[in-house]
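Before relying on records like the one below, remember that each one covers exactly one chain. Contacts with other chains, cofactors or solvent are not represented anywhere in the record.
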Amino acid sequence: MKRVLSFFICIVMLTGLYSAAVSCDTPANMLKIGVAEEPDSLSPLITYERSSFEIFMLIYDSLITFDENMQPVPSLAESWEVNQDSLQWTFKLRRDVKWSDGESFTSKDVKFTFELMKNSGLGLYTDLVKDIDVIETPDDYTVVFKTEKPKANMLQNITPILPEHIWKTIEEDQYEVFDNQNPIGTGAFILKEWKKNEYISFVSNKEYFKGAPKVDGLIYIIYANRDTMAQSIKLGEIDAALGLYKSNTKTIENDKSITAFNFSENGFTELAFNCRADGTSKGNPLILDKRIRQAIEYSIDKQKILDMVYDGEGEYGTTLIPVSQKKFHYNPDATEFRGYSPDKAKKLLESADYKDRDGDGIREDAKGKKLSFRLLLRSENTMEVKAGQMIKGYLKDAGIETELETLDDGALNDRIFSSADYDMFIWGWGGDVDPGTLLRVLTTNQIDNLNDAFYSNPEYDRLVEEQASNMNFEERVTMLYDAQRILYEDLPYMILFYEKERQLIRNDRIQGIRPTVNGAVFYADTPYNYLQASIIGAEDAAKTEEKEGKGGEPNLIVYFSVAVVVVFIAITLIKKKKKSKEEW
């Protein structure tokens, strides 16, 4: 984030001291997880950050969930069947489920949720319910979904079921502002407190229908700096550290009390282009020429960016479905592939009549309009900022001028959707188990919703629509490949790379967990490890705490005292330093 350097240092001190306070004063049987991401909302209708979706998975349940092998298994639904023409799905629901406020869960909640998601058109879950035409509830524990076309992703539907008795009181015009600060769910955990920029805590649902978690609670401790998080797990202040990179873990990778899980994320980092062509864009219209976009890709040495900025952690980016989704990822052949080739970039621009006509090193079109583009970068992510700086250098060599601008996530989102006031930006998407979710982002009907490149291609739209109803696996994969091929040619997103992530677990604290088939322990599209994790020696420690009168809430007096001292130091040092840019 943009902060005064000295203030940033103080905040890091505060984060570390706070983490130590949490470590000392939380109950022994509390699972403490360090994260670098904070949710944007607790409402499934308006959230887009993956940290929010992880929380939904803890406090709500869906009809089905996934096991550690990412196979669908019962959750709120105990069984299901589909009729012969695949146009009717019948789900039998569990009868022993209660909402966290004590109300009984029934089929009415399912019907209400799916209709709310579909009719509101809000959020990322809408695509999972959009093809369902009729929902019937013949009794309190049966739900029947009827569709006009087969629905290939029905068993990848992880829509969180919401309590009708709570959400029906929300007026429709309030959906986009309702923050759901006290969510009522059926899930394994119940939200206790969200202290923004510091922590999110949960207590275990002792009445959970699958059996209570083996821990008494869970706390996500939010770190503004990943190196600080790595130090915290080294010191034993937290039990797990998520979202780390190789550069954060070099000093602790040989610690035998810590197990590292390294895996490819189900997502990508992209350089997005402003493809809005309806005249309302505030971007440079030259970026609408896909030859320029293709020349930009030829100009950029993605592998060198990976090596220099990400310590080589990640895989070279090509098409939209990430390499972690091996069955669905399309790999361009030799005739399609655009690797790093400055010569090809220059030849492509020359052939399209973009030349440096005035000798200033910047190419222009025939009318003299310069190939000068604004690249917006997320100030919260220093790696993306460094990548942007390298991209600027590469494009300069190709005769393309790049103006860099850093913004926080909220401001960037406003620039994109309020006025299409950008030419390029770097951001990323995470996918889910169903590959169609990522593909649908760039469909025409998602313009002004998820489609942040404002891209439109009718053939692409058709393929994305048809693959969703094709129950033949091989045919569906072919359609997924064809759709990715179109995007790779048109290039609304230039996929920079598929990042790798490290999760560190203290093996002297946590037992019972196992990595999922994708390599992740937490943030793995399944609640499996949250239910299996237990704290080694927690029972004995709890007895000691009870005997000594410790445990319970975080020591707020100590925390407040530290905060006062740190703020005083910050105020003193701020007067002596100029503004600088630092990472989380």
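The mean pLDDT is 88.
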